[in-house]
Please model this.
Amino acid sequence: MMKEILKNKVALVTGASKGLGKEIAFKFADAGATVIVNYNSSKQEAEAIVAEIKTNNGKAFAIQADVSKEEDVKRLYSEIANVGGSVDILVNNAGVNPSKPLLELTLADFQQSLDINLTSAFLTTQAALPAMIEKNFGRIINISSVAAQLGGVIGPAYAAAKAGMLGLTHSYAAMLAKYGGITSNAVAPALIETDMIKNNENIKPTIIPLGRFGQPDEVSDVVLLLATNGYINGQTINVNGGWYMS
Model:
């Protein structure tokens, strides 16, 4: 049964108060996981997600942390241990994607993109590893982007950070494979119809070969697959309507 496939698993979804993170949190809860809905500033939205999950007899907790900061990540994992145990499934979804004209980009903009999109994934993964190795079970799922492969529509800072996530994914996959039960994979979506896309009149679905935006559940279905499959490792699954083919 769908409700049982993640039973007794603890899933941490970073940046889960909106967009893809929100959809992934609901998907995991429906599959029986205890979901940690991580947020930075959107407390009300995160608590609303938890309330809805509990209304549907699921288990979830909202925990604030800026996952680009090491001390916040340490506190996050300490709080997770208090409410749910150790993290079995980690979805690195937290990110920022501000768009600025190319010649206006600054070093601060570039560094912010690296910190929030990439360093956060390193920090949360490193914190999850000891328990995963002890249990010989873990699923690391990094939400990258077609920008890692084609440059995307946002800019070089975002593209570089998302490309870095693929390198991070490959390294963890190779180094953790010896434990047998830990996998590391990435999902690279393109133009998924979240609020960011809906509110940007400059982004048109005509850029996608299928001629439409993707839907959040079309990404969360793939994330759920990676959370439950133990033989897919070191892969990037493209959910992009055919924009980038591999």
About this structure: Residues 107-135 form the longest helix (29 residues). The chain has a mean pLDDT of 95.
